[in-house]
């Protein structure tokens, strides 16, 4: 033992002599300064690694930021961004038809008939025929007169109710509990499954991630939580990670199927992973991820798996009875621990309502916000909002009862039939292609021959409001009950065909309309600059002065 210790001491002393020999030409202050600079540099590198994926994309962003700080380049970039901001502001003003805004309350209250007259003037701002199926997504119900009349009556009775006070409004909380159980049963949950009714899909996702973060902290001792999701997962997952200081590990999807790359997601799992995410279906391309394979990975590492069914929520449970097929994505799949499902989309309820469901009550407990030391009493809230309007809950309850199971089977059959028709029609058009194999309500298409964003502008001129996608550049149409109207699908296929023919007359031409913003945004490595452009959009939307 002594010989080993002596040998180790000899080696250490030998290395110290070598180091001292190399440092001999330098003064102590130089050595101290070099040490401090090195430590600072290493800490910066470590912080960068902690905050970002250590990829070429992240490194190129840093290099790009350094490049655009050069005097001439900075001036040129500033001019181009100013032009982009001006274009965005102009487009936003066009939304309001350049109408003046009311910026102050009237000194005296207005009479009901005066307010209704003013309201009718605001209705004239509506230019796009969303009821006629010219809009992608946004409005999902066919808005039958009977349903509108029912919802109006229910809303008028419950507009000022508040489920924060169940002892005052037990009717509302009873409806809420029933809605949650109905949806859990649709997703084949057992008696141990539970959930909450939220204001929309984003809140459902945010609450689930809050629950898993706190569960991981208290049960597994995780202090630096990470979430692993395909890059097609809804942006609400990024939003939640921003709110709760969670590292988001975005995994590219398969470039052919656009499904989550299960093997790549498994490689991203580490001791800090608190959640895996899959979509059914994903918003960009309408693709259902391989939930069963993701569940195997989640079960293997004892990590929760969330299935985002916000978009397909009231299609998924009815697909089989509607005569179509999808693989299981519900609580019958071992390893699935939570599901988000929007009722205000294909459930045809008024905005906004959604359900977050858990396979076990142990997760939902961490969703709640509890504060026991407040002088105002013990405070507990199940969702982000404190007070909520019971009217949304009552209207949701009424709409679900109005349609019933068979009503949703029929609406699913109609929507998926139209999806198949449009997909088949698009596949027959030369020079465009459908992305992946969508199996629910979204069809995405792109082109390798021309700038696909030119197609956006041409379709806009024909009265369509279609969603633009990026990475890769594409468009998609989200089909609703408004699209099952006779002739709408045929009109869309015809207009796309005619617009593609125009684009192919000069395939190298670039878009000059609103699509130019999307095209430019994809080329900018520094995504913070794109973020500034997006913020300019919101700033312009709420700007009340010219």
TrEMBL record:
Bilayer topology term: Single-pass membrane protein
GO cellular component, one term: endoplasmic reticulum membrane
A biological-process GO annotation: sphingolipid catabolic process
GO molecular function, one term: sphinganine-1-phosphate aldolase activity
Protein's cellular compartments: Endoplasmic reticulum membrane
Positions of post-translational N6-(pyridoxal phosphate)lysine modification: 345
Highest taxon in the source lineage: Eukaryota
Cofactor: pyridoxal 5'-phosphate
SUPFAM superfamilies: PLP-dependent transferases
Keyword list, A-Z: Endoplasmic reticulum, Lipid metabolism, Lyase, Membrane, Pyridoxal phosphate, Sphingolipid metabolism, Transmembrane, Transmembrane helix
Biological pathway: Lipid metabolism; sphingolipid metabolism; Sphingolipid metabolism
EC number: 4.1.2.27
Family: Belongs to the group II decarboxylase family. Sphingosine-1-phosphate lyase subfamily.
PANTHER family: PTHR42735, SPHINGOSINE-1-PHOSPHATE LYASE 1
Annotated protein name in UniProt: sphinganine-1-phosphate aldolase
Source species: Dermatophagoides pteronyssinus (European house dust mite)
Lineage: Eukaryota, Metazoa, Ecdysozoa, Arthropoda, Chelicerata
């Amino acid at each position: 033992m002594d010989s080993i210790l002596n040998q180790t001491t000899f080696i250490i002393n030998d290395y110290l002599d070598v180091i001292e020999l190399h440092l001999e030409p330098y003064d102590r202050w130089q050595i101290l300064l070099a040490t401090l600079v090195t430590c600072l540099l290493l800490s910066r590198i470590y912080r960068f690694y902690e905050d970002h994926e250590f990829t070429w994309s992240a490194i190129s962003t840093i290099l790009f930021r350094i490049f655009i700080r050069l005097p001439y380049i900075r001036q040129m970039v500033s001019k181009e961004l100013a032009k982009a901001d001006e274009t965005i502001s102009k487009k936003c003003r066009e939304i309001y038809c350049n109408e003046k805004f009311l910026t102050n309350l009237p000194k005296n209250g207005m009479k009901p008939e005066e307010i209704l007259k003013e309201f009718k003037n605001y209705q004239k701002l509506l230019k796009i025929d969303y009821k006629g199926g010219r809009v992608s997504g946004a409005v999902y119900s066919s808005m039958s007169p009977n349903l509108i009349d029912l919802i109006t009556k229910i809303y008028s009775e419950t507009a000022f109710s508040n489920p924060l006070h169940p002892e005052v409004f037990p009717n509302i909380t009873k409806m809420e509990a029933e809605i949650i159980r109905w949806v859990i049963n649709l997703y084949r949950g057992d008696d141990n499954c539970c959930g909450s009714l939220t204001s929309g899909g984003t809140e459902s996702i945010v609450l689930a991630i809050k629950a898993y973060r706190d569960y991981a902290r208290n049960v597994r001792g995780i202090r630096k939580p990470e979430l692993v999701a395909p890059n097609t997962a809804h942006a609400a997952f990024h939003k939640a990670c921003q709110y709760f200081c969670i590292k988001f590990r975005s995994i590219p999807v398969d470039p052919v199927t656009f499904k989550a790359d299960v093997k790549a997601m498994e490689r991203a799992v580490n001791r800090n992973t608190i959640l895996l995410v899959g979509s059914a279906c994903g918003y960009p391309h309408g693709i259902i991820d391989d939930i069963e394979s993701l569940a195997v990975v989640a079960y293997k590492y004892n990590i929760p798996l969330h299935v985002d069914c916000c978009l397909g929520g009231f299609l998924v449970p009815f697909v089989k009875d509607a005569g179509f097929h999808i693989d299981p994505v519900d609580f019958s799949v071992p390893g699935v621990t939570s599901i988000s499902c929007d009722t205000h989309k294909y459930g045809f309820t008024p905005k906004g309502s959604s359900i977050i469901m858990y396979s076990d009550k142990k997760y939902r407990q961490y969703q709640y916000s509890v504060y026991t030391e407040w002088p105002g009493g013990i405070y507990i809230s199940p969702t982000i909002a404190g007070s909520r309007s019971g009217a949304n809950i009552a209207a949701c309850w009424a709409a679900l009862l109005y349609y019933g199971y068979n009503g949703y089977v029929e609406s699913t059959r109609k929507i998926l039939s139209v999806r198949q028709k449009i997909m088949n029609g698009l596949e027959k058009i030369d020079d465009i292609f459908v992305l992946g194999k969508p199996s629910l309500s979204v069809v995405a298409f792109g082109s390798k021959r021309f700038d696909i964003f030119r197609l956006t502008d041409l379709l806009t001129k024909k009265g369509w409001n279609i969603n633009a996608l990026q990475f890769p550049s594409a468009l998609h149409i989200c089909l609703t009950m408004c699209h099952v109207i006779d002739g709408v699908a045929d009109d869309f296929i015809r207009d796309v065909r005619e617009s593609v023919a125009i684009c192919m007359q000069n395939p190298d031409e670039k878009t000059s309309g609103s699509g130019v913003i999307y095209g430019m945004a994809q080329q900018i490595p520094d995504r913070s600059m794109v973020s500034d452009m997006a913020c300019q959009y919101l700033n312009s939307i709420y700007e009340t002065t010219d």
